Design the sequence.
């Protein structure tokens, strides 16, 4: 695995970073602003991770039949029935 | 409700919250809507952490089964999107750990997603303490009204409209107050 992928992954698995991108609080905003000021070389990697979390750029999707298949497995496992 | 998420003119974050609230109140079709709305977000995220598509699909399934089974314990969850992503990441980490124990291949050949260990948890707790003290120090640099507005907006997560009422100020003044406070915090933090 190359350094770029590894660095992006580090952000993707960081709970604080995930929350900062999706549901920021003041504390997280300040934390990451200071972090990027001290580590400007990581901003590009973080932006790539942000795009993945925000579904921007290249998107990978399941085929429709796979989406339905996983959904049916969930419904079966939970033992529920849907109205529509 | 289930079909609403496909209407892109409505803010997806608001739709997501509405579905989640309906699901917590027992609306099973809202659960289906949550799945439809987030399944590809989770797949697009998870596929960057593992190349095993079948494992990923299994983990997505487990995440949704878990939230269904724990639907009465989700009151503390503030944002369903980040909750789902973090749950999937944790699930993938768990599966990676299991594979280390079950596999004969050398540990350094396995692409471990990484996860928390005791040391990381300890460091995180210590860091939390330091961060809180740091933020308290920064907040003391603000005027009383700036501090109040920022506490309401960021710590208590109140809407601007609520803050206007509490502080008896108009909308634009509240926004300006928070903006100026944030500028000051940033300048003090750096």
Sequence:
């Amino acid at each position: 695995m190359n350094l770029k992928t590894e660095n992006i992954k580090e952000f993707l698995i960081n709970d604080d970073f995930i929350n900062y991108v999706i549901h920021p609080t003041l504390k997280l905003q300040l934390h990451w602003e200071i972090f990027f000021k001290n580590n400007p070389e990581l901003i590009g990697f973080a932006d790539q991770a942000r795009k993945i979390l925000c579904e921007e750029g290249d998107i990978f999707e399941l085929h429709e039949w796979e989406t339905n298949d996983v959904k049916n497995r969930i419904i079966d496992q939970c033992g529920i029935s849907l109205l529509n | 409700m289930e079909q609403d998420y496909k209407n892109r003119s409505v803010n997806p974050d608001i739709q997501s919250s509405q579905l989640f609230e309906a699901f917590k109140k027992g609306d099973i079709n809202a659960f289906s809507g949550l799945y439809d709305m987030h399944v590809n977000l989770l797949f697009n995220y998870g596929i960057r952490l593992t190349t095993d598509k079948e494992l990923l699909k299994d983990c997505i399934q487990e995440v949704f089964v878990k939230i269904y089974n724990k639907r009465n314990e989700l009151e503390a969850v503030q944002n369903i999107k980040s909750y789902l992503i973090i749950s999937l990441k944790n699930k993938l980490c768990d599966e990676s750990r299991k594979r280390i124990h079950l596999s004969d291949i050398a540990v350094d050949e396995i692409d471990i997603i990484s996860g928390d260990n005791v040391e990381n948890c300890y460091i995180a707790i210590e860091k939390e303490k330091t961060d809180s003290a740091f933020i308290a120090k920064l907040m003391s640099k603000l005027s009383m009204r700036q501090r109040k507005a920022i506490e309401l907006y960021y710590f208590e997560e109140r809407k601007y409209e609520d803050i206007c009422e509490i502080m008896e100020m108009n909308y634009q003044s509240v926004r300006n107050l928070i903006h100026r406070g944030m500028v000051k915090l940033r300048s003090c933090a750096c």
The domain at 118-189 of chain B is CATH 1.10.10.10 (Arc Repressor Mutant, subunit A).
